């Protein structure tokens, strides 16, 4: 929680610094606070929509919330901006595995398609 406090303080000094939002988002993710992570991830996206890390954070927040379809779409969008990004590739693979290994609740499946 100390790191979140420090990133929040840094944000008050420079609210448009996308890396501050991205780093605080990562802290929220480590604490499994998906909604707070999603808020910071969406702010990253709004501030810098062409930055692959914005999509990594969005996808990770959606995955934390078990919204695998949106997570997958965010990761694929990030890969369309940076196809060689190993971190996004791994996050997409992990999300697809989580969806596969999760007990079926609705009986629906997810399919991920590469964009671009």
Automatic annotation (TrEMBL):
It comes from the Eukaryota. Keywords: TPR repeat. The keyword NAD does not apply. TPR repeats lie at residues 52-85. The keyword Translocase does not apply. InterPro entries: Cul2-RING_E3_ligase_SR, TPR-like_helical_dom_sf, TPR_rpt. This is STI1-like protein. It comes from Carex littledalei. The lineage of its organism: Eukaryota, Viridiplantae, Streptophyta, Embryophyta, Tracheophyta.
